[in-house]
Amino acid sequence: MTLGYLIRKEFKQFFRNSFLPKLVIAFPVVIMLVIPWIVNMDIKNIRLTVVDKDGSSTSGKLIRTLGASEYFILEDVTGSYPEALRQLEKGRTDAVVEIPGYFEQDLVSEGRAPVQISLNAVNQIKGALGSNYLNAVCADFFAENFAPVSVSPVPAPRVSISVINKFNPYMDYKNFMIPAYMVIVIILLGGFLPALNIVGEKEKGTIEQINITPVRKTTFIFAKLIPYWIMGLIVLSICMLLAWAVYGLSPHGGIWTVYLFSLLFIFALSGFGLIVSNYSDTMQQAMFVMFFFILVFMLMSGLLTPISSMPEWAQVITWLNPPRYFIEMMRGVYLQGCSLADLSHQLLALLGFDVFFGTWAVMSYRKTR
After folding, report:
1. Which backbone phi and psi does 270 adopt, to 5 degrees?
2. CA gap 122, 283 in Å, rounded
3. Quick one: which of 159, 154, 86, 153 has its CA closest to 120?
4. H-helix or E-strand containing 241?
5. 3-state DSSP call for residue 97?
6. Which residues contact 23 (CB under 8 A, 6 or more apart)?
7. Whole-prediction pTM
8. Separation CA 59–CA 107 (nearest Å)
9. Cβ pair 236, 258 in contact under 8 A
């Protein structure tokens, strides 16, 4: 009964705040409806300037091909390379393609002609992808218009390549990121709010009223955690509903697998948040520590960059990062249809974090002050 009364007290305290209940509803809606459209690693709208020194019909066809690509915006066609380079230096264009003189003549007579590409590589991702896109468009153009003709009576062998994109057939970057965005929502609501809970009561002095009662530490900690478990599952449900209704994404591996892992993940994060609050005396301390760890959690979880691309020492550190396992689960269930049996490694890891953080939270809370 004591636990029930304490949980009711936590909910009443939560709903007395005019801002937090609105945040719990508005935050997942904004994350799911806005962020997937603005955070996108699929680079498009690369501004392109073409230096056409040939002026032939072939160079004009190549320019039209580049301009028709969805990845490029054809800003200008000029005959002066220094002028195009000045535009690149001033940031008015992202790439310059130089078509040399005698371009068409060399293609017809020799079967090849050089094309120079100059890129703004301040943003190396945009520069690298822009170079790949330009190379691919030029290669397709040459293959379609100047394919070598075999003079032998035996036709030249040709290789036909068929590409099948498994798990994300349309290569939509949103499908890859949306399951991970749900993790961000749970991290902020399930980890940040519990960290501020006890600290807020310390500053108000209300926690002293609990300390003088015979309530056990374990009961008190569970009373602090359970409301955030419930709110975390509600927020997750809102996110999954929006992912299904707006983007057509549903957990192919089973919805109960997602809820099981979510409960374990929220338990670990809320326990970590209580640990931070136990060692913090002010709201500023708790907020600073949580901002630091949340930043580390998100950057080293594989959310934005693959873990395999990190240095080996960083990959070792990610094994100690709870969001890593939850993101792997979410993407596996949503995109690959992984079942609980396929995720045993992630399940055991989160169980370990639950035991560790839960025990630490109970042991670090000092009931008498």
Report:
1. -65, -35
2. 39
3. 86
4. helix 217-247
5. strand
6. 189
7. 0.78
8. 11
9. yes
Six-digit token string for 211: 């300390």
Q: How many angstroms separate the most distant Cα atoms in the chain?
A: 98
What values do phi and psi take at 244, rounded to 5?
-75, -45
Residues in the chain: 369
- Taking CA atoms, 15 is separated from 10, 23, 207, in Å, by 9, 11, 18
Distances (CA, A) of 189 to 192, 210, 232, 256, 273: 6, 24, 7, 21, 10
Band of pLDDT at residue 156, cut at 50, 70 and 90: very low
Q: How many CB atoms lie within 10 A of CB 103?
A: 21
Q: How far, CA to CA in Å, does 17 sit from each of 10, 21, 237, 258, 274?
A: 11, 7, 23, 30, 20
Answer for the pair 148, 108: CB distance below 8 angstroms, yes or no: no
Do the bridges between strand 72-78 and strand 95-99 make them parallel or antiparallel, or are there none, so unpaired? unpaired
Rounded CA separation 58/336 (Å): 45
Vertex 58 angle, CA 93 and 78, to 5° = 30
Report the alpha-carbon angle 72-73-75, nearest 5: 135
Per-residue burial over 182-209, b if 16 or more Cβ lie within 10 Å, else e, is bbbbbbbbbbbbbbbbbbbbbeeeebee
Q: For residue 323, which of 342, 304, 344 has the smallest C-alpha distance?
A: 304
CA 14 from chain center: how many Å?
Answer: 30
pLDDT digit string, tens, across residues 236-281: 999 999 999 999 999 988 899 999 999 999 989 888 988 888 888 8
Contact status, residue 75 vs residue 50, Cβ threshold 8 Å:
no
111: helix, coil or strand?
coil
Residue type, 21: P
